[in-house]
C-alpha cells in the first residue's frame, strides 16, 4: 500500500502556476478532498499533512527545497517513519507525455527530471512509484521556436489555457483511481487510468 504521496514542484508564489508544479497541484487537491491542512515541517523542509485517504493514513508532502533537492524531504520523511520505497508515490510533471496524458509506473529511469534524480539518489533506489503528469515538450508545443528547445524556461512558465485544461482533466482522472493506488491495487489502477485515455 502507498503510505506517502509526494508532489514535486518549486516553493514560492512565483512558481505556483508553472508547469513544473503539476505535482503540487495534485497534492493540493488531495489535501482539500481529505480535509487535511499542509503545514511546514522543519525536519523535512516540506509542507506535510497526515491525511485519512480511502481508509488509510497517508502522508502528503510537498518539498520546499526546490526541485533538484526534493530527495532531502521525501527520503527524510520516509526514513523517519520507516516507510519503504515501494510505499512511496511521487507525482511529477512529465515532458515526454502531452498535456492530458498521465501514466502510473514503478521504478525506471528519471528521464532527466531533477526531482526524480535527487529522490532516487537519496532513497538509493529507483524502486518507488511515479505518477507522470504530462505537460508536453516545447519542441511539440512550441514548434515555431528556432534552435534547441529551452526546456528550463518552458517548465518554469504557466501552461497556456489549451494545455491547462487537459492537465487539470488528467489530474482529475488520477484522483479517480487514487483509492486503488493507495490500497495497493496498482495493476487495476494502471489499467483504469490508461484505459481512460484511449
From TrEMBL:
It is an enzyme of class 3 (hydrolase). It comes from the Bacteria. Keywords: Cytoplasm, Hydrolase, RNA-binding, tRNA-binding. It holds the Pfam family Pept_tRNA_hydro. The active site is at 20 (proton acceptor). It is found in: Cytoplasm. Its EC number is 3.1.1.29. TRNA binds at residues 15, 66, 68, 114. The record marks 93 as: Stabilizes the basic form of H active site to accept a proton. InterPro entries: Pept_tRNA_hydro, Pept_tRNA_hydro_CS, Pept_tRNA_hydro_sf. Gene3D superfamilies: Peptidyl-tRNA hydrolase (3.40.50.1470). SUPFAM superfamilies: Peptidyl-tRNA hydrolase-like. The record marks 10 as: Discriminates between blocked and unblocked aminoacyl-tRNA. Transmembrane segments: none annotated. One of its GO terms (molecular function) is peptidyl-tRNA hydrolase activity. It catalyses: an N-acyl-L-alpha-aminoacyl-tRNA + H2O = an N-acyl-L-amino acid + a tRNA + H(+). Monomer. Catalyzes the release of premature peptidyl moieties from peptidyl-tRNA molecules trapped in stalled 50S ribosomal subunits, and thus maintains levels of free tRNAs and 50S ribosomes. Hydrolyzes ribosome-free peptidyl-tRNAs (with 1 or more amino acids incorporated), which drop off the ribosome during protein synthesis, or as a result of ribosome stalling. Belongs to the PTH family. This is Peptidyl-tRNA hydrolase. It comes from Robbsia betulipollinis.
Amino acid at each position: 500500500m502507498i503510505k506517502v504521496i509526494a508532489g514535486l514542484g518549486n516553493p514560492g508564489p512565483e512558481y505556483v502556476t508553472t508547469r513544473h508544479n503539476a505535482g503540487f497541484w495534485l497534492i493540493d487537491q488531495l489535501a482539500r478532498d481529505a480535509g487535511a491542512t499542509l503545514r511546514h515541517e522543519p525536519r523535512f523542509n516540506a509542507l506535510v499533512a497526515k491525511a485519512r485517504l480511502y481508509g488509510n493514513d497517508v502522508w502528503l508532502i510537498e518539498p520546499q527545497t526546490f526541485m533538484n533537492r526534493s530527495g532531502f524531504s521525501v527520503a527524510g520523511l520516509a526514513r523517519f517513519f520507516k516507510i519503504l520505497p515501494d510505499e512511496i508515490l511521487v507525482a511529477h510533471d512529465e515532458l515526454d507525455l502531452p498535456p492530458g496524458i498521465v501514466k502510473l509506473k514503478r521504478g525506471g529511469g528519471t528521464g532527466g527530471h531533477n526531482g526524480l534524480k535527487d529522490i532516487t539518489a537519496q532513497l538509493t533506489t529507483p524502486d518507488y512509484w511515479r505518477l507522470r503528469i504530462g505537460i508536453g515538450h516545447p519542441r511539440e508545443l512550441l514548434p515555431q521556436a528556432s534552435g534547441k528547445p529551452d526546456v528550463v524556461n518552458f517548465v518554469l512558465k504557466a501552461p497556456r489555457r489549451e494545455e491547462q485544461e487537459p492537465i487539470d482533466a488528467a489530474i482529475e482522472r488520477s484522483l479517480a483511481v487514487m483509492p486503488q493506488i493507495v490500497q495497493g491495487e496498482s495493476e487495476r489502477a494502471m489499467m483504469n487510468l490508461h484505459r481512460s485515455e484511449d
